[in-house]
Design a protein that fits this description.
0% strand; 56% helix; Cytochrome Bc1 Complex, Chain D, domain 2; 6 helices; transport
């Protein structure tokens, strides 16, 4: 019922209502750090930052584990990920993986 309510709000009021609804959900604590670059909705805040909302939770978990272990490197992500616990990684991966992303093919 809660997701139906969210869908109705987004349909009725557009993206503004969707953003407000997203802020009332309970993201994991570490999402406050992630939202600076990836947004709480998983949309990168500039073209150099990937959109992670709607990605597979398994994929996101693997990437965060690789950043944490040094198997994958990025100036910001390597620093951020090194302090994440296994529980943080699971919570973040589940959060961003649960987002529904839609795509449109070019005309």
């Amino acid at each position: 019922m809660k997701s139906l309510f969210g869908a109705v709000l987004v349909t009725a009021f557009g993206l503004g209502a969707g953003a407000a609804l997203a802020q009332t959900a309970t993201p994991p604590g570490q999402a406050q750090t992630c939202r600076v670059c990836h947004g709480l909705d998983g949309m990168g805040t500039n073209p150099m930052i990937p959109n992670i909302g709607g990605q597979s939770a398994d994929y996101l978990s693997k990437q965060l584990q690789d950043f944490r272990a040094g198997r994958r490197e990025d100036p910001q992500m390597s620093i951020i990920a090194r302090d994440l616990t296994d529980e943080d990684i699971k919570a973040l991966s589940d959060w961003y993986g649960s987002i529904t992303a839609t795509y449109a093919l070019p005309q």
